[in-house]
Fold this sequence. Notes:
alpha/beta; globular; four-stranded mixed beta sheet
Amino acid sequence: MADWLAALDRRAALRAKAGLTRTLRPRAAGDPDVDLAGNDYLGLSTHPEVVAAAGRALSGYGLGATGSRLVRGSTDVHHALEDDLADWLGVDRALVFSSGYLANLAAVRGLVQPRTLLVSDAHNHASLIDGCRISGAETVVTAHADVDAVAAALAAAPGRPAVVVTESVFSVDGDLAPLAALHAVARRHGALLLIDDAHGLGVTGPAGAGAVAAAGLAGAPDVVVTATLSKALGGAGGVVAGPAGFVRHLVETGRTFIFDTAPPPAVAAGVRAAVALARAADDLRAELADRAGYAVRRLGAAGLPVSTPDAAVVSVTAPGPEAATAWAADCRARGVAVGCFRPPSTPDHRSRLRLTLSTGVTRADFEHALETIVECAPQSRAELVLP
């Protein structure tokens, strides 16, 4: 009976040898570290108006939603949030889920019909990859941001229903997908386009409406948008937004919607307050863009291989998983929290530090954090040069 546990121990030892051990590190309220690891882009998770809105709903509704959305979990707060999100994103309807992961699973599965071909970008998030797998549909994985490869995959399946699946701002390197070109190719072949705008919503686009809106695709009848409510909006949950008929389809058939407990009303109320703030936060978006540019210049000047960000995600390549882990740990020991991305979380098997910028961090602390990252970098800059 213990053999299965022994097998798990052996696998854990192999991961440790490869530098791939993952560890939970609890943080206390008021943690003093400079946070370049979380996704609170606009600093809204602790904004007084957001916290106050959540507190009022907590007092009125209690801690949890008490059931799934179709049983007792839907409140007027959930519906108001969905109306606000639909208006912001310029779509017919929006449907809130308890996580962005579940929203993506539902969206992919909901778009699949018999003989559907899914064309998925090689750098897509795990939730989109899992959505493709769970759907049971044939999936073609195309080279990252390669519009010609997408066109070839669609052309090879004439007459079949198809869905092109992509992120907008990719979560590892922060680069932007060629959304307008992907949409043109998809439309030419009669395919739908599913875009995960998790890292674009609140950060890019008119009034922060995201990369889909910035590409001029808001409200297109052949485009479905997903996003998380836990990044720029500082809360929790996910959303699927698009044509009213598709949202109705998910309400009636989406397993991760039907069989999951609704997000707590207090969270929905806090996110709704965050939406209003995010729509008016052009100054914060300008500051994020300025910080992204500054980070690239400073890290690049230090000889570090740094990505060119299209939003608020900046990545720095490390020599390998062990070096990335040690680099991140050295930064943490000096009061700077950075993301540490290693295989299998990276699509190209390279390890990185990922920096997610936030206006909730003061400018002085942000610049100090960059100096810390430079000072803690592996000693041999030559090791960091990309092949």
